Amino acid sequence: MNDLELYREQLAMCDEKLMDALAERYAIVEKIMAYKEEYGMPILQPKQEEKQKRRFEDKLGHNTYKDEIYDVYKSILLNSKRIQSRKLFSYNIVLIGFMGAGKSTVSEYLSAMFAMDVVEMDQEIVAREEMSIPDIFDTYGEEYFRNLETKLLIEMQERKNTIVSCGGGAALRAENVKEMKKNGRVVLLTAHPETILERVKDSEDRPLLNGNKNVEFIDNLMESRREKYEAAADIVVHTDKKDINTICEEIIQKLSEMDEKTV
Ligand SMILES: Nc1ncnc2c1ncn2[C@@H]1O[C@H](COP(=O)(O)OP(=O)(O)OP(=O)(O)O)[C@@H](O)[C@H]1O
Ligand SMILES: O=C(O)C1=C[C@@H](O)[C@@H](O)[C@H](O)C1
Ligand SMILES: [Mg+2]
């Protein structure tokens, strides 16, 4: 065997070691999940993730291939998250609720924690139509917009393990709710009108609230929608005075309880 053949053989052996180490690593990830479940521990532990990363960085030190190794490490972590989320959620998570209830915030956080795809329905419709939502309403009417929502929700059935962040009015149409539930669990986020006002008061992005930024208006609109939101929901999570990690943990726990009941 010449030197080149020898190096190639060594390289192949390195790849095998990597393969074995990764398989071992991912099996440990599954064990950690099972342990947390058995002892009723929180699934989300962002501080632990940070600790693990710091430990890796310290160990990496000034390694010649620091950047390249770190790049691979990030991809390993991403895939760990995918393993967890596929195990936890074999369905789409469909977030509904009033403007400012936190649908986009929750989507972003869950997506970062579990490497899940997010579909922001409003954004997707705006991109496809190349028009803002108020312009779609003005030009074609609300019925046309609701039909686009229904079509998009039907498309979501080709996916799983995706977070669907709905427009504030999407769950008001019975047909939409039917489509959401075909392969999704519907999570209703709620907050008191005072909390909503506090969260949205500095933004001009919500046409329905512009010129109506007061508790009375929000309360009335919320009340008029409450029954439909609640009827659509598989689980309800109240978000007042809770931080994003607490809210997401509650969502995960309630979804898991639902799984236990349906087995
Ligand atoms: N739990 C929370 N605590 C404090 N602030 C929050 C919380 N959840 C969301 N917010 C803040 O409230 C604002 C509205 O949240 P977000 O955009 O996620 O709501 P939304 O339900 O997606 O609203 P919309 O229906 O208009 O899209 C944001 O500025 C966000 O940072
Ligand atoms: O609450 C609503 O009815 C709406 C909320 C937004 O997300 C948009 O989907 C649209 O402006 C309608
Ligand atoms: Mg949003």
Description:
The chain has helices at 3-38, 46-60, 66-88, 103-114, 121-129, 133-140, 142-155, 174-183, 193-200, 215-232, 244-262; strands at residues 92-97, 117-120, 162-165, 184-190, 235-238. The chain is of the alpha/beta class. It has two domains: 3-88, Chorismate Mutase Domain, subunit A (Up-down Bundle); 92-262, Rossmann fold (3-Layer(aba) Sandwich), CATH 3.40.50.300. Strands 2-3-1-4-5 form a five-stranded parallel sheet, sandwiched between helices. Helix 4 crosses helix 11 (244-262). The mean pLDDT is 95. The structure holds adenosine-5'-triphosphate, (3R,4S,5R)-3,4,5-trihydroxycyclohex-1-ENE-1-carboxylic acid and magnesium ion. Pathway: Metabolic intermediate biosynthesis; chorismate biosynthesis; chorismate from D-erythrose 4-phosphate and phosphoenolpyruvate: step 5/7.
Q: What's the CATH topology name of the largest domain?
A: Rossmann fold
Q: Which H/E pattern describes the elements?
A: HHHEHEHHHEHEHHEH
What percentage of the residues does DSSP assign to strands (E)?
Answer: 5-15%
In the CATH scheme, the class of the largest domain would be: Alpha Beta
Widest sheet, order of strands? 2-3-1-4-5
- Low-pLDDT segments: none
Domain count: the total is 2
Number of strands: 5
CATH architecture of the largest domain: 3-Layer(aba) Sandwich
Bound molecules: adenosine-5'-triphosphate, (3R,4S,5R)-3,4,5-trihydroxycyclohex-1-ENE-1-carboxylic acid, magnesium ion
Keywords: Amino-acid biosynthesis, Aromatic amino acid biosynthesis, ATP-binding, Cytoplasm, Kinase, Magnesium, Metal-binding, Nucleotide-binding, Transferase
Subunit structure: Monomer.
Binding site for substrate: 122, 146, 168, 225
Subcellular location: Cytoplasm
